[in-house]
Specification:
22 strands, 5-stranded antiparallel beta sheet, mainly beta, binds beta-D-mannopyranose, about 350 residues, single chain
Amino acid sequence: MKPITMHTGSLPQIPWQERPKNCAAPLWRYQDNPIIFRNPIPGVARIFNSAVIPYQDAFVGVFRGEQTDGIPFIYLGKSRDGMHWEFSPQKIRFVDEAGNPAMPLYAYDPRLVLVDDTYYVIWCQDAYGAAIGMAKTKDFETFVRLENPFLPFNRNAVLFPRKIHGKYMMLSRPSDSGHTPFGDIFLSESKDMEYWGHHRHVMGKSNRWWENVKIGGGAAPIETSEGWLLFYHGVTNTCNGFVYSIGGAILDLDEPSKVKYRCGSFLLTPEMWYEERGFVPNVCFPCATLQDADTGRIAIYYGCADSYVGLAFTTAEIAVDYICAHDAAGDDDRCDGKR
Ligand code: BMA
């Protein structure tokens, strides 16, 4: 195995379970999945596609809560161990810079990323069609809205955890306003977290069955000695609808629009009851990771069948080795994505 290091902090309390004996897969599921079931709080039918982060010796998270009226919003959760969660009964109240309410019409698929000393929440919302919303917080009590970074239609915006060459970096997936039947991952940069430009193509759908319809960024990229380790989702179509699998790629550290390695095989695909059965069957949708640089451990949080939250594990070595060993990156992936 290559000596892969993660340029992230120590997290000795990371949720963890050893790889089962005889497991050849690069990701293995937590044996007590799902960690969040249906009807988690009054008025919320399902929590899934959610993101967590370490905070003050414990964990916090932003959770997609599908209300009983069918409208998704984001709820705050707290946990001591990253597996058992308590949710605020009220949706997160976003405000503007003056402290006035600034709620989106709806909000779903949140990501949560710490850059410098500020936590950013990025989600999908309505802005005359599906688009990206953003807010910042330092204390998980006050959430201040930022300008929407991109024009509609767009989904799956994922912020990098540090600036590169002095610029904030964000992945996104231009789309349509429905159940988008296409989609590639793009990279945009910003000097101030307000104006985004220098858009680059990172990678597109492929001719491999599990990601031949569309792809989208998942968890915030993890900085490793080999490059930015990205867990993303890849989608195929069947006579019974879309199937969402988890894929993996490694992006160039200095120029992340260049893909160094891209795994030709999925890392995880729906096969457990909570992934195959639910409100939308056959969905594994990664939105966050936790990682411990000391041990190389990675815990991946993923939405299951638009109904539950699941946890899967890997290590930096196992994930990077698997992606490199099954590399299928083409010229279109390796180039800088500028045309
Ligand atoms: C996508 C998003 C996700 C969802 C997935 C499967 O378009 O809306 O939130 O998990 O579809 O339904």
